[in-house]
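Please check these two lines:
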Amino acid sequence: MTTYDDRASLTDLTATVERVRSSVEGVIEGKPEVVRLSLTVLLAEGHLLIEDVPGVGKTMLAKALARSIDCSVRRIQFTPDLLPSDITGVSIWDQQRRDFEFKPGAIFAQIVIGDEINRASPKTQSALLESMEERQVTIDGQTYELPSPFMVVATQNPVEMEGTYPLPEAQRDRFMARVSIGYPSADAELQMLDIHGGVNPLDDLQPVAHAHEIVKLIDAVRGVHVADAVRRYAVDLVAATRTHPDLRLGASPRATLHLLRAAKAAAALGGRDYALPDDVQALAVAVLAHRLLPTAQAQLNRRTSEQVVQEILQRTPVPQQQGGAGVGHGTQAYGQQPPRRL
């Protein structure tokens, strides 16, 4: 088992995250919580779905994150006529070699930006299923491994917009988290006019971290300890979505796994080598809401999945620490050993 002493200094790795965060926040004004969630998903080996109305910076966020890391980046513009082979690749007959040669598609990159993913047909969207879950692509019976780190950052417009297809449940379930950027504050919008009015800030954005540093960060996050009580708390939250009267489809076991991975990444970003119930609570809406399907009656009552998750958070008992202390009043009960700062 890998220990912290076997890995590079976590203090140095935390500094790497801070450089990436500062770089992205220099482009995305006034949305530090969105940037933090994006980095959490990256370190948790997940994929990020950015959903919002046009013009609020969805693609800008994806590009800023990609350009801040020195790794291969490919962008896919999803359109109704996009084919699955445009994403995964295709085998072409080579006349000189008299054999088929595989031409990799756009998915063969470390960070893949899928712009307006819900404008492509469900058949094309399904081309991402294997790559997002198994980090590989199978073409004509041959399996090709994808590079590491690997992350899909997809943007989509709300399904009420013209020319969109709802993402299949299996596709949504493969995204670790969904985030909405929202409109900026008046001050942030004024600052955006000063920064973006004359030049594109992406043009001057330089990588501040290398791919191998991100791999080390991911390795460090894997070693974050999660106590049994915190694991049970995550399981209870997800299980509650499967029996809630306002939901016709609850969260899957994959959602539980994603929630714990995200909590471990959040703990590492917070400078801890152990996860707390607070980490699970803070990420529950982002990780669970997009996987849930409200009933017809709940939709008539304008009940959203986010509201249901918030209700479940209020009703589910939070694990108590030793001595009866509540969350936030000490952390000794959540580590196998006395916890120490990263």
Summary: The chain has 14 helices and 13 strands.
